[in-house]
Specification:
The chain is globular. It has an 8-stranded mixed beta sheet with strand order 1-2-4-3-5-6-7-8. Helix 4 crosses helix 5. About 40% of the residues lie in helices and about 15% in strands.
Length: about 270
């Protein structure tokens, strides 16, 4: 299996499919690059080089005790891009991965990144504060931490339900999708899973969004129960200078079903445009 070794000795697993213009995909919490399997094949089949990595602490990458924060995630991505010598690059990030690619593109990717795509992404900042009064209360994230510590296996099974909107009337979400969410979650080291909650909820990406000078597609479902759209996509679009907002009516947080089909078509169109 292919790995790169970062400057602090962490091994980052990645999958690399197809040939052509490179597209790097960054996954959400608590998943891995496996979450992008459909998109990897789709992009490779359409003439792109599709690359997805397991964030440190997740999937098949190393599980270091330190570095489970957004600055380090972005630096790891930068080192992956540099070691693979990627240029004219498109970066795509879902949820936590959306924050990772925005920070990477703004702080490391100048001259390499030409387009950014986010889906259900955590920017600009999730947690409620005096400066972000519409955010999610810190107690919600404390409950996530408590659930992960107490019984992460059951917590991930339970989380898969709102993640994919399976608790909505008429939703058709397979048991397989929920179990695959659980499977990927159980590969995350406990320390990494715990620390990443702070990283995705408390990191402020406002300046990163303002700094982006390349086109960005900001996509999100309007029934996202994990990252509320009013405090995410609707705010992010006002902070970027070359943004396109795409809202998917009734779509959940997880990329699945009709939402996945529509999003994937829009991804291909945005990259080619």
């Amino acid at each position: 299996m292919p790995y790169i070794t970062t400057s602090d000795g962490t091994q980052i697993y990645y999958t690399d499919q197809g040939e052509g213009r490179p597209v790097v995909l960054s996954h959400g919490w608590p998943l891995s690059s496996d979450a992008w399997q459909v998109e990897l094949k789709l992009l490779a089949d359409n003439g792109y080089r599709a690359i997805a990595h397991d964030r440190r602490g997740h999937g098949r990458s190393s599980q270091p005790y330190t570095g489970n924060d957004m600055d380090t995630y972005a630096r790891d991505l930068a080192e992956l891009v540099e070691q693979l010598d990627l240029h004219d690059l498109v970066v795509i990030g879902h949820s936590t991965g959306g924050g990772e690619v925005v920070r990477y593109a703004a702080q490391h990717g100048v001259g390499r990144v030409t387009k950014v795509i986010t889906a259900g992404a955590v920017p600009p900042i999730m947690v409620k504060s005096d400066s972000n009064p519409d955010g999610t209360p810190i107690e919600v994230f404390d409950e996530i931490r408590a659930g992960v510590l107490k019984d992460r296996s059951q917590y991930y099974l339970d989380l898969a339900v709102p993640f994919y909107g399976a608790n909505r009337d008429g939703a058709e979400v397979s048991d397989g999708a929920k179990y695959d969410f659980w499977r990927q979650g159980m590969l995350v080291g406990l320390t990494a899973a715990y620390d990443c909650i702070k990283a995705f909820s408390e990191t402020d990406f406002t300046d990163d969004l303002k700094a982006l000078d390349v086109p960005i597609l900001i996509a999100q479902g309007d029934d996202d129960q994990i990252v509320p759209i009013a405090d995410a996509a609707h705010k992010s679009i006002d902070l970027v200078s070359h943004g396109t907002l795409k809202v998917y009516p009734g779509a959940p947080h997880g990329i699945y079903g009709a939402y996945q089909e529509a999003l994937d078509k829009d991804i291909l169109a945005f990259i080619a445009g």
